[in-house]
Amino acid sequence: xxxxxxxxxxxxYVEVFLIVLLCLPFISPPRWQRIFRSRILTLFxxxxxxxxxxxxxxxxxxxxxxxxxxRKYSTDDQVVDLKTNPMAVDHLHMKLFRAQRNLYxxxxxxVLWLILRRLVTLISxxxxxxxxxxxxKRQAEGASAAANKYMDENSKLKxxxxxxxxxxxxxxSVELKESLQELENTKKGAFALLCTLxxxxxxxx
Length: 205
Prior knowledge:
Elements (H helix, E strand, L loop, with lengths): L2 H20 L6 H8 L2 H36 L13 H112 L6
């Protein structure tokens, strides 16, 4: 395998490793987002974005070259003289195999690169949604606690007003009884005075 195809195969292995690492279930999306937003990785991405784009262009060119080589050795235009070169068919098949291998390696490297970038984007969006959901949850819990607090205070206030009303009612009842007692005593006194005046009419003179 030549140097460029060895580099493409190494890139393919790195992409497979990163995709498997991103799919591990015990690493949460918020933790991945903190890693993505770290200073070192942000600096690396900001400076390496241009080189990554160049790498994609190189992969596309190598993919086109692999496709051309595959079509070249797959056609029936290759005339083989078995008399002068008995191993020509095997040599042709070997070149076809190498061309197909290079085509598949480069194609998978391109596809996995797109999958890797999409996976990073989805993990970042999921981490943002989780953080937003947690914020809404804390806000809802705070609103619920405040509502329960206000309801308790309102209930205590109503209980206090009811207690005050009961005390005023008892006080008014006592005052009413005292007034009725005084009225009864006044009536008795007036009746006794009337009886005295009837019995002794000359008292008022």
